[in-house]
Amino acid sequence: MQIITHACTKCGTIVSANELESNRVMKCPGLGCQNVVRFDDLPADDREHFIENRERYDI
Ligand SMILES: [Zn+2]
Question: Could you tell me the pTM of the whole model?
Answer without folding.
Answer: 0.81
